[in-house]
Specification:
This protein has 342 residues and is α+β, with helices and mostly antiparallel strands. 36% of the residues lie in helices and 25% in strands. The chain is built from 9 helices and 17 strands. The strands form 4 sheets. A 6-stranded mixed beta sheet has the order 13-10-14-17-15-16, sandwiched between helices. Helix 6 packs antiparallel against helix 9. The N and C termini lie far apart (49 Å).
Amino acid sequence: MRLPSALRLAVLLLLALAAPVAFLCQGAPQGEKGSLKPAPPKPLREMTVNKRKYVFLKDVAARYGFRTYAQQKGKTRILTLLTPRKETIVFTVKEPFFQLNGTQASLSFPVEYQKGLFLLEKTDYTEFLEPILQTSTLPRRKIQHIVVDAGHGGKDQGAASGKILEKDLNLAMARKVASILRKRGYTVTMTRTEDTTLTLDARCNTVREKKADLFLSIHCNALEDKKVSGIEVYVANPPGVPSVGTTTLGKDGAATPFQRTSALWAYYTQRALLKAAGDAQDRGVRRKQFKVVIDSPAPAMLVELGYLTNDQERAKLLKPDYQDKLAVALCDSIDKLRQALK
């Protein structure tokens, strides 16, 4: 059927208007002549302070389209980065930690303030903050085989409170995590399934032998100060920067292929654990030279689920329903990392 001229003209006009919209939605074919590619971000300016390189937090904010809000409380200077989603990243001058959307994370070096500008040490940005803010900078990685490590065991009982031994709680939690992961379709290898003694090398070798995609080591904590409580997670500190609370520098080559992926996983995990625990103290994402995280040939993390030396926290850790909540949170963070790295 032949359309009237006026109607044919109208149809052609509509098609012409719709074509650019469809093209923009689909994206230009990669590699074809004339395809559009996003401009690379401008290099961050650097300043040397105490022989270390720092980047300008103002530049970091501009790179991601964040607004900045500086304030001074007494002698304390604080800079808040506000994301378009109203999430916050809070830095405090001379403090070795920052708050990422309410979750605490340690810094290798305190934030500096020079000539009216807030400065972040460069490796703190590249090895920790950047992979969280821009997951596209991480290598794509299949997450299928998980090694779940119940810390301590056998002659090595770990922390203790009376007859409550860390090695037993670690194993109970590891079993729960492994069970949930298997139900979700993951392949799981446990470093130990009974009360057996294992070397740290043996735990790392399990990851290597199984060619696993992630290594999760489960622990509980203890301190002489019984008032201390809370949840903390650990990843390896980069080479040349100190472990949290120490002057011990990261080994050359340690964990470098996986440091940035581990950082993102740790952030997901700490947020999930705190949400599941309800009122647990946030002791933050920390970086330290634990052998099982620096020598594991895969993204690796060690979790401390609470303090056995704190009466209230120990009572919670002994409750099966609380253990279930923490186990689900650990598995949820793996799910989230898997999705981010697809």
